[in-house]
Amino acid sequence: MDRMNLAMLTDFYELTMANGYFQNGLKDKIAYFDMFFRKVPDNGGFAIMAGVEQLIQYLKDLRFDDEDIEYLRSKNLFSEEFLQYLKAFRLSCDVWAVPEGTPIFPNEPVVTVRGPVIEAQFIETMILLTINHQSLIATKSNRIVRAAQGRDIMEFGSRRAQGYDGAIYGARAAYIGGCVGTACTIAEKEFGIPAIGTMAHSWIQIFSNELEAFRAYARTYPDNCTLLVDTYNVLKSGVPNAIKVFNEEVLPRGFRPTGIRIDSGDITYLSKEARKMLDEAGFQDCRIVASNSLDEFIIRDILIQGAQVDLFGVGERLITSKSDPVFGGVYKLVAVEENDEIIPKIKLSENVEKITNPGFKQIWRLFDKKSGKAIADVLTKNDETIDESKPYELFDPEYTWKRKTVSSFIAKRLLIRLFDKGTCVYASPKLKEIKSYCKEQIDTLWDAVKRFENPHKYYVDLSKPLWDIRERLLQEYSAK
Ligand SMILES: Nc1ncnc2c1ncn2[C@@H]1O[C@H](COP(=O)(O)OP(=O)(O)OP(=O)(O)O)[C@@H](O)[C@H]1O
Ligand SMILES: O=P(O)(O)OC[C@H]1O[C@H](OP(=O)(O)OP(=O)(O)O)[C@H](O)[C@@H]1O
Ligand SMILES: O=C(O)c1cccnc1
């Protein structure tokens, strides 16, 4: 997309704090912030990172134009020096993120920002909304794709998306998560996601009868003819009329029919009956598409019931992640620099799960060399390394007596540098590559992590040096 001025898309407190930092001599204080999330939507076992490319675009474009400055001046709240600072603003932060398409887990930093606190704080709102939205939809899309067990999922959600960017970036995220294409045309134009689709009921209604409507469509698109068969009666009129038109308009033009779509009623029963009728007519290769408020649970159920569906169109429940519509990523200060030394900071809470992991960190994913499967993630201090040539002892950060030594593993760093002092140093992969990387990485997870009900909790552990820092800070604060 062309540059959009989204500088003012920020929570107002980011601006009041920024002005305050400016006036209190903290403008250049170096701070570290982490974005992480605490719970996987739908109680799933993992989420999928998405939205990094749009985050990069936002950070690259971040400027305040004259209108923004004028507007802020009119609030009579911000000092003139601060407004002049905003006018000349250019990002100078260092930014790291987990690449798009990577499976991610609660409590690990998926984005880390280091920079003057005035900047690093200010970008919170956009970091969170960008990554929260696309990760939510990529995660949901992947659940739906997995429920379909190899059958294609088409994303049909634009019309029910929450706003145009919900539709466009939702289509992008859904594609990363595994959908084969989208009904959203602009998503093909902008991102190259295949734009696909069938027809609406209005096409059938506009003609004097269903047969005429099917005929007109087949004559116009004999090479790509999928007919919507549920406007009047699927088995008594829709499927028989479709078969007639396939014979009379599609075959004589040298093509095979592409499919029929069922959009209401009992999908299992109707698809089974339709399959028999199509097969008997010699159209074993004609695919059956189902749609109508589908999600991973209905798809799983109708397949268990034996539905004869080859591909699914999924809209509202995917594009809004209806069953769990919030990806609760948060952005927390984890360290500051004093005299070039990194001082870890912690946020305490009565709720153990809400205590933050302090310090400037790296995430390591350990893969078993033999099976290729992911064993655990380990959060370390940023300057630590994990030596693959030696056994490594994992331990549960809460129940530290739970220990496991792994050997013969590959250790991969997950946080990759996006910006070096404000300059982008990362080239986003092509969307298709992100999509196939996503599939590959999900294949490294054990089935137990992927199941919908009570998935196995994947280990996100702390290295001993990081655990020591966390423990020391906890002791210090509880002593106070
Ligand atoms: N065999 C099935 N098992 C479980 N759920 C199904 C099955 N067939 C359809 N559904 C789902 O049941 C829900 C309601 O289906 P229903 O046919 O009643 O839809 P509807 O929208 O009321 O129909 P219409 O579009 O004719 O008004 C939809 O979410 C649909 O996907
Ligand atoms: O149910 P969803 O998962 O959101 O899938 C998309 C829905 O959108 C369309 O219906 P709509 O009634 O909007 O238009 P139509 O006239 O083409 O049926 C389509 O027929 C699906 O039912
Ligand atoms: O192409 C389709 O069949 C389609 C597109 C959007 C929404 N529902 C269906």
Brief overview:
With 480 residues, this protein is of the alpha/beta class. The chain is built from 17 helices and 21 strands.
Tally of structural domains: 2
Structural class: alpha/beta
Number of helices: 17
User: Can you give the helix content as a percent range?
Assistant: 25-40%
N- and C-termini, Cα separation: 51 Å
Q: Can you list the strand order of the major beta sheet?
A: 13-12-1-5-3-19-20
Largest sheet: 7 strands, antiparallel
Overall 3D shape? globular
Low-confidence stretches: none
Number of strands: 21
Bound compounds: adenosine-5'-triphosphate, 1-O-pyrophosphono-5-O-phosphono-alpha-D-ribofuranose, nicotinic acid
In the CATH scheme, what's the topology name of the largest domain? nicotinate phosphoribosyltransferase
Radius of gyration: 26 Å
What's the mean pLDDT score? 97
CATH superfamily of the largest domain: nicotinate phosphoribosyltransferase
EC number: 6.3.4.21
Catalytic activity: 5-phospho-alpha-D-ribose 1-diphosphate + nicotinate + ATP + H2O = nicotinate beta-D-ribonucleotide + ADP + phosphate + diphosphate
Pathway: Cofactor biosynthesis; NAD(+) biosynthesis; nicotinate D-ribonucleotide from nicotinate: step 1/1
GO molecular function, one term: nicotinate phosphoribosyltransferase activity
